[in-house]
Structure formats: C-alpha cells, structure tokens
Amino acid sequence: MSVTSAPKSDASIARETPDDRKKKHVLLAAPRGFCAGVDRAIQIVEKSIEKFGAPVYVRHEIVHNRHVVDRLTKLGAVFVEELSDCPDDRPVVFSAHGVPKSVPKAAQARELNFLDATCPLVSKVHVEAERHAKEGLHILLIGHEGHPEVIGTMGQLPDGQMTLIETNEDAQTYTPKDSQKLALVTQTTLSVDDTSDIIATLQSRFPDIALPYKEDICYATTNRQMAVKAIAERCDLLLVLGSKASSNSKRLVEVGAKAGANTAALVSDATSIDWDAVDRAETIGLSAGASAPEYLTDGVIAALRSRYDVTCQEVEVTKEKVIFRLPRQLLDK
Asked: What is the pLDDT of residues 93-107, one digit of tens each?
C-alpha cells in the first residue's frame, strides 16, 4: 500500500533551511528567448507610441506572447484582428508574422499610416515565393495551416499558385500538374529535423524542385533547437517558456522530447509549472521560445529557488549578434 504525503505548505517551506531542501540542478539553454525579429517588432510598437502618441493599433498580436501583448497594451497599443477595426486617423502596425499583400494594399487605399513589423526573415520567404512564381513555378510551402505566418506567405500570391504541405504524408501524396516546375519554401519557425524529412521526401519524388537559396528556417529557431538538444539528454524535466500559440516554442518542446528529455513541457510562466513534476526531477532544463521575454526565465528560476536548493549552469551553443533595422518612419527626427 502506497502512502502519498500531503503537499508542504508555504509556511513549512519558508521554515526550511537551504540545507534541508531538495537540491535541483538547472541547465539553462542558450540562446533562448527574444530573437532579433521579435525585438524589432516590439520596438516598432514602442517607438510608434512614443512618436505618434497613444493609441497605436496593431493588427493581430505583434508576437505570440500574452505577457508582451499585455505590457504593450498598457503603453497604449490596441490589438485588433482586422484592418477594418482600425480608425483612419491612427497609425497601425502589422505583426512580426507577416500579412497577405491585400492588407498593405487596403491600408494604402485608405491612406493609413502603417508600419510593417514583419520579420525580415519572413519577408525573405515572401520575396522567394514571388521570384519562383515569376519563373512559372508552382510553390510548395511547408508549414502549419492557420498560422499567421503561413496565411501571410500564401497571401503573397494569387490563389492556386501555392500548396501547403504540413506533413511527410502530404509530401508523399501530393500530385503536381508539372513535376518539373516546382519550388519549395518553408515557414520560418518549424522543427529543423521534421522539415528535413519532408524536404527529403519531396526531393526524392521531385528531383528538379527549386530549393531556397538559403535555409528558410530562421537562425534563431535553429539556434534554440540546437541549445535544447545540447541539454535534453541530461534533463529529467525540460521546461520551455512560451505561448501555446507560438510555433517555435511548441517545436522546442517536441525537439527536447525527441532529443532525450524524460519529460518536456510548455509553460507560460512560473505560475503554470507542475510542481509535482519538478519535485520528482533532479536536473531541470530551461529554455524559452523566441517571443518569450527573459524576465519570465528569471521568474521561473526565482520560483525554483523559493522551494529548492538550486544550482544553475548555462549551456551556450552559439552567440547571436543579429540586429534588424527599424523602419525609416521611426528613424526620422
């Protein structure tokens, strides 16, 4: 017969000395958290409010993180779903995920003051897709249906010129009109390993398919996945900070589980941690998606230290020095 002890109260935890508490070793994956594209998008909203005053409207969440959105809302940002929700006399910012061509076209028709916060690496995919289309190629887009980035990329071309490939099964069953006139682009926030499998399938079926000049999956997504792989095998529990709507954050959980973490979980912040799982773990990995601010990581470490005797070790696989320029409208004095 097993006996489950009652959870300790906050008071009893507070009475314990560090020597009495369980030891936990935390492996901090690096890089983690904000990428250059997310940092640029947030700055665009902040500086737009500084320059034009509040409110500044933002079409869709600027990035997929509720903490970021709530902070910007307090500063004076108003988040809306469609351009039709924006008044004519206030600036509007397009999210980092990119938008269909119809959106800036509609903004121009209304003479709105709009700022495009699309990540430059997403814009690169848009340019590639247009180039392939001009060459008479049908484009296969590897991505997740309904994701804002996929909607924006598919919206760069008229209907019928791009086909979404979500899985390896899609790649195996897709039947083109002309197998010698195909090109490939990908969503930037996918799992590198899963995407490689799909690309390999498409290449084996269609040897003439035109591939991206450079990898479409962004450097930040790749680096964060590499960092998680570097710690996963040592982790009894891997925690990834990020939103359920964040593709790159969810992929980090998947990558960590495949790379050897006993358990991997997505958490929005310290309040959503499963403390029973933490209690069972000796080594805890910690990472954060590209739209998760670093103070959330600090909050998790503080919460761990309030309950356990914690040691931290950062495992860095590479340094990131990428910076993206802001739009000219915000650089003018």
From this structure: 999 999 999 999 999
Q: 72-93 as b/e, with b when 16 or more CB fall inside 10 Å?
A: beeebbbbeeebeebeeebbbb
Both tokens of 168, joined, read: 């390896």
Domain boundaries, the chain: 20-34+219-316, 36-119, 120-205
Give 151-192 as a DSSP string. HHHHTTS-TTSEEEE-SHHHHHH---S-TTSEEEEE-TTS-H
Q: What is the average per-residue pLDDT within 109-118?
A: 97
Q: Helices marked H in the chain — which ranges?
A: 10-15, 36-52, 66-75, 102-109, 120-134, 148-154, 168-173, 192-205, 219-232, 247-258, 275-280, 294-307, 328-331
Sequence letter at residue 117: A
Please indicate whether residue 135 is annotated as part of the active site: no
pLDDT tens by residue, 183-222: 999 999 998 998 999 999 999 999 999 998 777 889 999 9
pLDDT digit string (tens) for 258-294?
999 999 999 999 999 999 999 999 999 999 999 999 9
As given in the structure block, the two tokens for residue 101 are 């061509």
User: Options 3.40.50.1820, 3.40.50.1110, 2.60.40.3390, 3.40.1010.20; which CATH number does 120-205 get?
Assistant: 3.40.1010.20
Of 46, 149, 233, 316, catalytic: 149
Instruction: State whether the Cα torsion 32-316-236-12 is positive or negative.
Output: negative
Structure tokens at 58: 């933002």
Prediction pTM value: 0.90
